[in-house]
Each structure stands twice: as structure tokens, then as C-alpha cells.
Amino acid sequence: MTGADATVTDTAGAPDTAAGDTPGPGAQPRPRRGLVVGLLVVIALLAVAAGVCAWLLVARSDDQRTRDDVLAAATAGAQTLLSYDGRKLDAASTVVDDTTTGNFHDDYRRLFDEKVRPNAERLGARTIARVVGAGWVGWSGSDARVLVFLNQSTTTNAGERVDTVQATLTMREVDGRWLIAGLDQV
Prior knowledge:
This protein is α+β, with helices and mostly antiparallel strands. The chain has helices at 33-81, 89-99, 102-123, and strands spanning 84-85, 126-140, 143-156, 159-174, 177-185. It is built from 3 helices and 5 strands; from the N terminus they run H-E-H-H-E-E-E-E. Strand 4 and strand 5 form a beta hairpin.
């Protein structure tokens, strides 16, 4: 045997590698870096996904709470605004200030003073509006839009009449309260 052909074996019969690739006695085996890096990436992705899911749930519940608040304000506001008693029109006039905002406030105030008040006084009218349904339409900038369905019962000196009204209300938040900023009959 020549030196080039000889392989040295240890006492257990396993070949001895001269390159030093095997750890010596008491040495720790090298961790598999690829596996560790892969596990860290997976853990990081799971943490990010959990955070995104939590954020979406919180954002969705906040959005739903806001929608519920807007729907409640639209329902109450429409019923209050569209109900009046011809014998107590000053109280009904105050309601306009409490439930409306923006240009709609001025337009509705003018309509109330020029049309509703004189007719209600002349006819002895009493009108009660009841919202029988309301639904979310969507956002228009920072304003919310709600579709409401009302039954408006009017009693006058001449008798009683019930009208069904469908309107889209534009709701705007002012000082923490949702007020009617527009009413478009459908």
C-alpha cells in the first residue's frame, strides 16, 4: 500500500477525516442555521398576521359601533324633526336647532317658518313620524348616509292621513353628536 492509498481507521473502524470536519471531544454540534432562520421567519410572519387580524377586528368593531350610533341618531332625529303639534310650534322650532346642522339647518328652518308653521296653525295639524326601518347607505367623505322609511300620521281639522316617506339622511358629527345635515326624499 502506498501512502496515497492508505486510509487510517480509528479503533471503532470508522474512517478518520483529516480535514477536521468532525467535532472533537466535548465540542457542540453546529446548529442548522437554515432551519433556525426559517423558524424565525415563520414566527415573525405569524406574529404579524396575528397583529393584522387583531387590528382588523378592532377597526371593524369600532366601525360597526359608529354605524350603530349613526343609525340610532338618524332614527331619533327623523322622528323628532318630522313630528310637530300645531298648538306647540315653538317647541317644534327648537327641535330644528337640536337635530340639524349646516346649510340644511338654515334651509329647514326657513321651510318650517314659511310653510309648516302657517299651515299647521291654520289646519290645527298634529303630525307624528315613526321610523319603521333604517339602513346604512355609506360614507360620503366624513358624512354618513342613511336610508330611512317613515310612516307620518297627520291629524287636522279635516281628518287623518298617513303618508309613507322614504328619505336619505346625511348625518354629520358635530361636537360628538350625529346631526342631520341633509334630507333627500326618495
